[in-house]
Amino acid sequence: MNARGVRRTRTAIAAAAVVALTGLAACGSGEGGPPSLNWYVNPDSGGQERIAKECTAEAGGEYTIKLPRLPRDAPGQREQLIRRLAGNDTSVDIMSLDPPFIPEFAQAGYLAPVPEDVKAQVTKDVVAGALQGSTWKDELVALPFWANTQLLWYRKSVAEQAGLDMSQPVTWDQLIEASQKTQKRLGVQGTRAESLTVWINAMISSAGGQILENPGAEVTQYKLGLDSDAGRRAAEVMQTIARSGVGGPQLATATEDINATEFEGPDGGFMVNWPFVWPRAQGYVKAGTMQKPTLDDYGWAMYPAMTQGEQSRPPYGGINIGISALSKQKDLAFKAGQCIVDEKKQAAYFISDGNPPSAKAAYEDPEVLKAFPMAPLIRESLDKSAPRPQTPYYNEISGGLQRTWQPPSVVDPNTTPKDSQSLITAILRGDALL
Q1: Domain for residue 433, yes or no?
Q2: Tell me, what's the pLDDT at 31?
Q3: What average pLDDT does this structure show over 363-372?
Q4: What is the DSSP code (8-state) at residue 267?
Q5: Is 320 within 8 Å of 390 (Cβ atoms)?
């Protein structure tokens, strides 16, 4: 099957599958009431529901916002939305979109063009990562909402024992050596999931490479940068972590939550993870299941560098707001979207749910700084972050990486980058299947 066949097949499957969702179509306006906008949201701790209520109240009867829920995992969210849109479901108005999937939605014509006045408002003083993640082919196609990044978390006592100066940038090699010296864990996400792609992409980007070097090209002309010095360096780091044992016996199944749990215990030393680990630990102290001195031992620094003296490119994640091109209420949806991404609402969302803002001004909010003392570092990290490959075929690229770079114990810099590049190229050209 050629690349065109891959595209046809994906669209046909999505269109056929939408039949199963016809009974789930959300309701429109109530009789005599204001128009109802459906905002499809990813699960969180209730922050999006609060924002929807606030924006509904502020609309003064111009519209109301309802919140159909998407699945918990990002691939499931993508699948449900793609099925609806491929089936011409006009009940979808607003969508919370994981940035890696935005090019696919934009390329398929599922995202309404962002009006110039809206564009001017929502792009003002936004962190670089979120702006990149909302853009496809040099056009803003979604509204930057909240932006996420990973930090290097460390136990101050362990870093001191290892002789590491955490006020200076540190490398993966230094962390591996420190973990071996102190016999503590270096937490990384090695499970076969999107978190593995996040780690691979951050390492390759930090080594000066790119997984996909020409994202704007036709799929049959894609040039992958896996079989490169940067790809081999990333594989070397992964191999060393696995073979040295510092990643722990659960490395092949380690998720963000598993690593956070281990970091909280006596074996915790270093970990790359999202900011949720901070409010999580605070909650445990409040509940009495973690001692306050353990929380006081938490430190944070910029994501590890691949080479001494070179800047790392931390992961970028989060959620951006897409307005469906199929919506019959696009003007109202954009008004609601502007309300949703308001910088004050972003700041409140950060405090309540732990999801960092895309708006730079929100990081200066005194309540944000009180709740997240590492907020300035998060903002700096987001400005230096590297998005995952921006392509309508992200699902195929990520799936190919997870198939060839997992488990970490079998990763080999001499073979893995080359094998993964060959497999993904074949998948994109329709010569292989995941």
Answers
A1: no
A2: 58
A3: 96
A4: T
A5: no
Interatomic CA distance for residues 113 and 116, integer angstroms:
9
Amino acid identity, position 91: S
Write the pLDDT tens digit of every residue in 118-127. Answer: 999 999 999 9
The number of beta carbons lying within 10 Å of the beta carbon of residue 109 is 10
The span from the CA of 359 to the CA of 342, in Å, is 8
CA 49 to chain centre: 20
Cα gap 326→94, rounded to integer Å: 10
Same domain, 401 and 262: yes
Residue 401 host element (H or E): helix 394-404
Domain that holds residue 44: 3-148+318-378
Shared-domain flag, residues 311 and 322: no
> What would the DSSP string read from start to end of 274-304?
-TTHHHHHHHHHHHTSS-HHHHHTEEEEPPP
Q: Structure pTM?
A: 0.91
CA separation, residue 220 to residues 108, 239, 424 (Å): 17, 31, 11
Query: What is the pLDDT averaged over residues 324-329?
Result: 98
Helix (H, G, I), strand (E, B) or coil at 27: coil
Quick: pLDDT tens for 83-124: 999 999 999 999 999 999 999 999 999 999 999 999 999 999
> What's the CATH code of the domain at 200?
3.40.190.10
Residues 225 and 329 in one domain: no
- DSSP annotation of 232: H
- 27 lies in the same domain as 62: yes
Q: Which residue do the tokens 């918990």 mark? A: 72
In 59-114, alpha helices (H): 74-86, 102-107
C-beta of residue 401 within 8 angstroms of C-beta of residue 417: no
Which string of b and e fits 333-361 if b means at least 16 CB within 10 Å?
Answer: bbbbbbbbbbbebbbbbbbbbbbbbbbbe
Q: Is residue 174 part of a domain?
A: yes
